[in-house]
Amino acid sequence: MIGSITELFYPALCTGCENTLFKGELELCTACILDLPYTRMHDQEANIIEQRLAGRFSFEAATSLLFFHKSGKVQHMLHALKYKNNQAIGKLLGAMLADELMRSKRFAEIDFIVPVPIHPKKGKIRGYNQAEVIAEGMVERGFFVRAHALKKTEHRESQTRSGIYARYKNVADIFGLGDTTGLECKKVLLLDDVLTTGATLEACAKLLMKIDGLKVYIATLACTEH
Ligand SMILES: [Zn+2]
After folding, report:
1. How far is the CA of 27 from the centre of ligand 1 (A)?
2. CATH assignment of 37-224?
3. CA 92 to ligand 1 center in whole angstroms
4. Ligand 1 centroid to residue 19 C-alpha, Å
């Protein structure tokens, strides 16, 4: 009841800038869509993500749709996706990522998307895995998803201790392989919402690489610039 009254008085707002959306605009206003900090680095070899991940595990290509700035629009959108049950923004950004990857040379022939898993307990509390929601937006554009190829086995989230090695130690042993049938020799896009140090993606990629002939690609909605 309170919800419907609220909707009556407060029109839909843009998830990026909180301005009122015009008719026909969904989740993001046109100004935000035009003005987001796109990385445009999908076909750029040794882009900043690839430099960050280089030497840690082998991958074919890595990219991100947007740059992440603290307290910027992108952070606002990712926060809405992760903590405010705004799955629509995740699907929209997933579709935008898919459109860009389909036009890129290096990501054009992905066979499957594998979203980074969250622990089932956490999934139950939140109701969804944000990486899977992003993948759903990509599926709408024709990608195929294998949501159970990886699983999270342990619920351990606090990563307050600094240092890449400490973080890696923290995440390396909490993922496992799930149903990987038919993934041999496939091009697999490992997908997550945000990349900072890359420790989570590294742990997941190393597991996937145990599958014969599998090639790992990496994409996230956003990445930090440093
Ligand atoms: Zn906006």
Report:
1. 8
2. 3.40.50
3. 14
4. 6
Task: Output the CA 127–ligand 1 centroid distance in Å.
Answer: 26
Q: How far is the CA of 196 from the centre of ligand 1 (A)?
A: 24
Distance 61 CA to ligand 1 centre (A): 31
- Digitized pLDDT (tens) for each residue of the chain, 226 residues in all: 555 555 566 679 999 999 999 989 999 999 999 999 999 999 999 999 999 999 999 999 999 999 998 879 999 999 999 999 999 999 999 999 999 999 999 998 999 999 999 888 888 888 899 999 999 999 999 999 999 999 988 765 555 555 555 555 566 678 999 999 999 999 999 999 999 999 999 999 999 999 999 999 999 999 999 8
Q: 12 C-alpha vs ligand 1 centroid, how far in Å? A: 11
Question: pTM for this one?
Answer: 0.88
Q: DSSP secondary structure string, the chain?
A: -HHHHHHHHS--B-TTT-PBPPTT--SS-HHHHHHS-B---TT-TT-HHHHHHTTTS--SEEEEEEEE-TTSHHHHHHHHHHHS--HHHHHHHHHHHHHHHHHSSTTTT--EEEEPP--HHHHHHHSS-HHHHHHHHHHTTT--B-TTSEEE--------S-SHHHHHHHHHTTEEE---TT-TT-EEEEEEEEESS-HHHHHHHHHHTTSTT-EEEEEEEEEE--
For the chain, the domains span 37-224
